[in-house]
Amino acid sequence: MMPFLRNTWYLAAWSQDVQPGQMLARKIIGELVVLYRTAGGELVAMEDRCAHRMAPLSRGRVEGDRIICGYHGLEYGPDGRCAHNPYGKPPALAKVRRFTLVEKHKAAWIWLGQETPDLAQIPDFSILDIPDDAAAMRRDHVTFDAPWDLIADNLIDLSHVSFLHDGILGNAEMVGSKSVVEEPKDGHQTVTVSRDSFGTAPAGMFDMLFHQDGKAVDSWMKMRWNAPAAFLLDVGVN
Ligand code: FES
Prior knowledge:
This protein is mainly beta and 238 residues long. The protein contains 3 helices and 14 strands. It folds into 2 domains: 9-121, 3-layer Sandwich (Rieske Iron-sulfur Protein), CATH 2.102.10.10; 148-237, Naphthalene 1,2-dioxygenase Alpha Subunit, Chain A, domain 1 (Alpha-Beta Complex), CATH 3.90.380.10. The protein has a 6-stranded antiparallel sheet, with no helix packed on it. A 4-stranded antiparallel sheet has the order 5-6-7-8, with no helix packed on it. Strands 11-12-13-14 form a 4-stranded antiparallel sheet, with no helix packed on it. The protein starts with 8 loop residues before the first strand and ends with a strand.
């Protein structure tokens, strides 16, 4: 497996996944992270490991702006410092790492690198900014028990759809479609791969959705990759 890239943005969770008063534990590029919301609704990401005996903070509880460790009750504020010790003065060195987190496009983007984060490099998913009821929209996640780079290889490689997804996303008539690759340019760190098909039988999914009844269509398929882990797939038929 390729090593993880650190100085980049990762989608830690969908905004909807972290409700007030709740915590969400995630392991992101090897880091144990807990996410929660302050009383004011701000989303916070901290190391999911108490400074005392390393208990997962996500197993404790949230009260107001603070996480309370479930082991001995140390309380941590959103800056990661111990704000309250039920047995005496908060130890000066008792703190956990707080990570940079930005909520954008209905998602929580986390920065786990050492370099200064560049907000402009958060991948553009403004397509998600429309109201939920304005489109058929579902934000969810799936788990792969596989190296991340193999998943990336699969998603950026559209030439497999006629075989692996035959009858759903592709078919035999689309095998000859040309792949066009656009390299990063103008400061944008994105790669796109497009495969357009002209006058071919519709992929099964479109036949089902738009009732093409097998009539020939022009179709497009475009995958955008913000390396290492953000992909946007745009597919459709004319
Ligand atoms: S391990 Fe968290 S307070 Fe002791």
